Structures
1.
Amino acid sequence: MNWINKYSLISILLLFMSNVSICQTETDSLWDIWTDLKAEDTTRLEALIQFGGEMAKTNSDSVLILSEMGFQYALESNLLNYQAKALNLKAKTLYRKGEYDDSEEIYGQAITLGRKAEDSLLVASSFQGIGTVYYARGEYETSIDYYQKSYARSSILNDNILMGDVMNNIGIINVIQKDYERAEKNLKKCDSLYMAAGDQRSAPLTNLAVLKFRKGDLIQSMELYLQAVRINEKNGDDYSNAFAYSNIANIYFDLNDFERYEEYINKSLEIRRKLGDKAGILNNTLNLGLGYSNEDQYEKALPILEESLALAKEIDDKNSEAHILVHLAFLQVKLNETENTLATINDALKINKKLGNQLGITLCNKAYGNYYKLKGNNSKALIYYKKGLKIAKETDLEQTKDISEKIYEIYKMQNNSAEALKAFELFVTSKDSVHNLETQKEVLHQQYKYENEKRALSDSLNYASQQQIQQEKLIQSKNQKTALIIILSLVTMFTIFAINRVRLTRKQKKIIEGQVIELNELNENLEEKVIERSQKIADREEQLRYALEASNDGIWDWKVKSNRMIFSPALYTMLGYVPYGFKETWEEIQNRIHLDDLKKIEDASYLDLILQSNEGSLITEARLKNKFGKYIWVQIKGKVVSRDNTGTPDRVVGTFTDITSIKQKAKDILNAVMTTEDIERNRISKDIHDGLQQTLTVSSLNFQKVRKSIGELPTEVIETFGIGYDYLQKSITESRSVAHSLMPKAIVDFGIISAF
């Protein structure tokens, strides 16, 4: 295996070249196991794949070499499941590098190998990986299909970690699709699954924070992000912290705190550049570029957006590419660098139409309008502004405000008072609504600052001291008084603006009513599908129950860590008891096993034999005492069906099958064979004794008579006669011996008198 040494040398060099230290105790230990040529192949491969998983957080290129090394070694050792594990590691790494097509193809190969190896957990992990690839492409429905396939398999195996991962990913998609109720349900289920597995993770908290942010609860969102950051720091999970920092930045942006926004988005970007996370880098650079543009820092925004565009094209993210193109067009107009502006907008519009992105199409029309307005062609600008406004009224309040203002300016320049007034009224209405939202954000910002100060105070002082100091600060601090006055003023302004909002609400009411009707129709269809699926599940459960009842096998299920045992009713009835007539413990079974059968396993239990076997399974036979004190023969089967993260069995399932009738039939057959054998031996012995032996005896008597008068014959004849006579005597002796050995066993054991 010369290739092993070659890949080992390459990977060691890569580890030394890495600018991130991996000389931690755990990773060193894993690498030592892999390089130990005396260790079992499966042990070495498991260590290598775990080592690659740790390396994936810091050095993607090294992981690709490690995964290929593991795959080749598993291929040569004919270990299908480890071939699939190595491919999964490779596919996950390619996904993080933004190479989605290659990642999906490798996951597909892993599924094929996992099915050949009959490893459902590997298949479930691969389905989850493909779901993640489709999520990154924005194909959410296909993504959910693959996630559900993964969940179905992992739930059978009771793998809480994988089930939690899947529910987290589905929850993210629910948030994106604005199905907040279902999103919160799935994310909380994810958190409970992780907790049940004893593995605290930040992902569900981070995504619940996104959900709270979308619903406008910025304070609760920030609290959840900070909890997630603390968990990530404890676990050393920089990859997850990159997401948390990015989303914290978005909250500060929404609170109009650009300085803190810039701080946190750069924290996230720094981590993602270190990890080589191209999709994450794209997300950060795009948001940072738009942030600079929003702050009128165009010179900073332009190069960052150009970097984002190149990255979006590299990883084939069409949605981001269109978004960047249209904002580059806005910047080109603002900087009066319009040589390529029309081509840029055309490219953006083409992608947005293909994606069906209405907001993107609105922005493209707005960009056309800005361009033609700059060029002095107000008539053409007006055409595009009106196109954009028509879509914006139904999709985006902010764009409605901006475009209606631009239309008002053009009509004002053209002295078209009537149209200018209409545009101005729409501008004012939408501006009021936007201002109301900004007012709410400002109130939330002030409230967040107040909660922050209160939390900091609570951390440093006890409750009584906190109340006293807080009271003194409220009396002495002019800033807090000013803040309180501002909040009250903003609330008053909000009340006034709310009256104006009623006008817009009435117009939107008809649209909402139509959507409600459509939603009700969708709900009815969904209920029908749920009922249909529930019926199918019930039918399958009933079929399974009938199959179990028909088999008469006693089923047992052992939770290893909690040492909890579950018996089926058939196990009790097999031993003559009513269902649950004794406790569901293995000791109850052990006490009923025949002592001779216990001696065979040298004081160990059959459960220990299952755990100690290489295959994690056992098939054997033993005698169990039933309720009436009699022993029945049972076949004992057991198999490990799930393991924890360390490979330790955590669940064993098996059956007891009554084979007493089979054993009795075997005994009856053996007795019949022995009886038949005795009869046949007796017949042959009798034939020899009564037939052959008598014939030989008569011949011997005649020969003895002849022998008395043989002296007159020649010497040669006498010698020949003597030889024949001797052989005759030997034949008589041997026939007696054969007849004796063929006598029935009863004569040998009890004597001829007793036997007769």
2.
Amino acid sequence: MISLLFLSFLSLILPPLYAQPLNRQSANEAVIDLNQFPLFIHSGFSLDYTKTSFSPTGKGWLGVSPSGNGKRSVRIIDYPEYSKHGYLSIRTNKIEEFSYLIPFFITSKQYLSFTSQPNGYLGLHLASIGDNWEVYLNGTLIRSEIHRDVQGNITAHRNYRDVIIPFSADIIRPGLNSLVFRIVGDPANPMVGLNSSDPYRIALLDFLKAQVNDIVDVILSLIYIFVGFYILLISFLNPYDNHNRTFGFFMLVLGIYFLVRVPSVYQLISDSEVLFKLELVSLFSILPAAIRFLNDLTPWTAKEKKISYFIYVLYGVLIILVILFPPALGHDLVIIWSFISLFTMLYIYGYLLLYKLFTSLQGPIPPSRETPNNKKRSELLQIFKVMRDTPIGNVFIGLSILIFTAVIDAFTSIVVKKNLVLSRYSLIIFTIGTVIVIARRYKNLFQMLSDASSQLEAQITALNKTKQEAEYKELAYRRIFDGTADPMIFIDQQLIIQDYNRAASILLKTDSPQNSDLIALLEQFAPSPAIRRSDISEIINKLLLTDRPFELDAQLELFKGNVQKWTLRFEKFKSDESYLFCIRFYLANPIYNAENCKKTKGIFVIENTLAAAESISNKIASFLYCFLPDHEVSMLWAALREMIINAIKHGNVNIGKVRIKYLITPKKALIQITDQGMGFDHLSILEKIKKGEQEFLKRHQGIYLALAAFDKVVYNSTGNQVTLEKVISYKDAHYAKNRYV
């Protein structure tokens, strides 16, 4: 093995050498192959390892060389320093933590390709990772799947395949970057670590989603399950349909086996230990189900019954052991299963198929006095007819293809540790052949299956569309959340911050308040008495019982030397199987003085979000309290908000930005709103509004409110810029001067 110092040296001074294999691009998409970089392993975990300045040159770090062929499996049990795996052991070991560190290099060209994309999101694609884990990129936590109780035991397992973790392109940088995995699990479990060989890569998020699209696999699996369940259902009450029932069961377990291996199943069943046991139970049931189907398809002898029942008991014992004992034993049982299955397949293929096929060929080929060439042609024609027209011939063709692809799958899984699973596609041929056999007795079955398949595809398409809409809504919400000027944070029931927006990090004077205790963070800003944990816990308990938001007033010194009364607004949100609680900060009573009520001006350029319109209109309206009564400010705020929203929706049509310029003095307020749109015929609209056409007023209430609230509403010739003017009387200004002292 290459020494640790040499690996560190390579990672720092020879990044272009690693970068050469990264030119594997599809549709001009840059891909960073992480298997082309060294990997370092250490027992235990520390947040210090996630820092970009950290170098894994200390004691206890184990270096793993880059992969020459792009394939590298790094399981804990593969390293004697860490492994506690005992063959066929049923002992459960204490949970341990491990750190995986991959220093990787991004060229300037790749960095430009990544950061020039419009959505600004990249993705980390992991072929597999387990058991519990967290991923840090350049010190930023981008995904956490740690589920442990207070004693440190794992409460939910997350051994996942084909994981795509989205992250912002702002996290990466040109040159050397650091990727750290916190791996948590039983050191005897073969799934702890990065247990598949490839791919492990970073690329554009859209590119990875297109590459790792399991919709076809899901559809095929659901078709198998539906076919199996349907055949079981229609043949359940018929005592002469044993072969149909066993074929239905065979299809059902095959469909379940394939379904639990696709990444989309994690959305239905998140605990991977449940999925792993379900996968092995279905896998161990496939061959016994195939034997029973073949025995029911053709008459079976007493000898065949004894052999078959022995096989049922053998596989039944494997299934019971899988259900009762830890996953580490399950992996050893898979090895035992592979040897048992080799002899089982020889029995199925050699005796139940080849031998019976040979006996079937004896009858259809009669003696002939034809020439040798004609006789050979006649025999081949008869063999073709037997294969085409007899149940045993149909099954022989389908199962031959299935066995061939299954051998390839076994080789790729055991030798190169890659999840290929070609047999899920070859099973289509086997399924069609067997369905033809059944269709000889049920002429309309194939059409019914075709209709059911179409319905399933339509349902999957609808589900996929719903998922895309949900992803779009989530992205839109994220833009609103990050774009608003109001500080917002999300906490869990333990008052730990789970998420925050940029305004909150600025207000709380910390770059990353995530995973911080809310009370501990606020206490540095709260004069005596501090905010009490019990008050917030009481509000959270109320939120759990009702959907109504709650507010809490607090005296906070968020600005040096200025203790102000803030209102904390609490709302409840559903997140997975638990709740998160949103806290929005805003000043309860803005404090003004005569010095601040002389003159103010400024320019805002905002994104196309309703949250930004809300925030900016509040900001500008707050300055008007110095000069106008509250009811007039409320009217001006409503009109200003509607005009900004008009610029976003109708001017920019949600594309571009809105520029807002304002000047407020004791004599007048001027506000200018400019969008990047083509403008509109404002003269005709203003004329119709003045006439008071009710239907027209409903569609243009923003302009109507502006005309009512401001003294002047003036558009430019194009119509993409409007200037709002409000004259402030001496009486109002004198009132404000005496009001704020």
3.
Amino acid sequence: MAPGRISNFPLGHVGCGRVFRCRFIILKAKQIDRTVFVPTVSLFVLMSAALLLGGHSLQHWLASLMTGITTNMGWLFFGVYLLNFAFFVYLASSHFGNIRLGKATDKPKYNNFQWGSMVFATAIDASILMLSMVDPLRAVAHPAFNVKPFSHAAYFDASMFGQFDWGPMAWMMFASATIAIGYAMYNKHRQVQRLSEAITLLDGQQGYKKVLRTFVDFLVVVGIMGGIGSSVGLEIPILATVVHSFTGVPDNFMLKLVLFAILFVLFAVTVFAGLEGGIDRLSAAHIWTAVGFLVFVLLLGPTKLLGQLELGNLGHLITRFIPLSTGLVGKGAVTTNANTIFYWGWWLSYMPFTGLFIARISKGRTIRQIIVGMLLFGALGCMSFYAILGGYSLYLQHSGIVNLVQILNTQGQAAVIARVLSTLPFKVAVLIFYALSCFIFLATTISSSAFIVSSLTSLKLKAGQDPSRFNRMIWVGVFILFSMGIVVVGGFKTVQTICTLAGLPLIFVCVLLLGSIVQMVRADQTVYATKRTRAGLEHDAEVQVQQLRKKQQRKAQHSGLAPVRY
């Protein structure tokens, strides 16, 4: 009967559709590495629930925890950064600096300016646009080196601390992952999907090494989640205050929820679209917004005074580099050391993510070129924010135009940033542009991070294959939930504590990376070779690698075991 056929068709169609969707979800779930995915997702869902339920009551406890870490474990952070910095200074200045990532005949894909712009862009997010205005105010009110608060010397030192925290030592922490991953990919011909695959000290099929590799992957995901989640937790309240400044919408939790909803949609669309068509377009846009804003403030602000302050800051940074590096900054300088340890934890949490990106764009460059380039483009680029935006905040405070320190102490850093922006010409346009820039930065950072974390929690992907959208979207949701928990608790100390805790375990990963780099460069037979003899050595090495790979594959087929990593 016709009615029966018409009524049966839709039912059958819907049933097939449900079966297909269920199979699709199951198929995507099979692409996930549950040994890393399940514990990390579970951990952050539980942490998010604890933050959301605990709320403001957790502020005091987290602040006490941060004080305890600064007092009792600060030496670990200062120690690993000193070790890391000294190691890469030696590596760049020694004959090992001549080692090229790739073959002797490989040329860099990007010229120096293009490469440097992309390196600079990796560390530019909304956080530096915000903190570069506030950190110098904390420093002038609570100076180190026994300097009197608000004195002439305090003003000349104020931006120096932020430039140190975002300067050479911080950027050399990225070098550990960059060099290890780049050498593993281009010289040892590995497909590096996870940071553990670049740690040659963990090569082999021994049980404890397998456990350690999984543990490293777990720590990397925790670090990225902690660092990026803290970024959003820091930036949403500030963004809400800025939006309130030019719209008049009440700055309350409902506004923050709306911002989270908008960001979730933006993150979801860009992550769902993938690297091409989503994340890449945001990445191309965000660098220009940052540079444009800096130039605007420099040209319309007190340009001459900013230059004078920066000359003083750079001079003091050079003469006081060693005390800053060791935390010996005078009695009572708890604020300075706590801020540095917070940043050291933050940079550690970003280290795997940023190192992987820089390694992928650095084929054909020598180790020396990469290290020097990261210092010139990365460190100096970040320091320019403190020179211009930090200098402008100090100018407003010193000249008496606005008492920003009082606003910081009574209303918080979000109110300080909104007040600084309000003093610039074209106030409303500046506030709108700043808010849009922060949205672009947030979308770029979290979308890219969700993509990287989903790669780390996937089973082996083929060259050019993206992680499943199912995996990516799960992480977008977890990012938003965790960040919302941080906002509910509130307070800058909360952000500092979570960032520091996220970075602390990655000290262990950094040491493993340094050991692996030593192992790889010492075994490199091309260090003393000429270009021609190096090409011959590389050819012989490639032949040996191919022979070993075939031998291991034949052995694995007969024994049913996985091939040994080499």
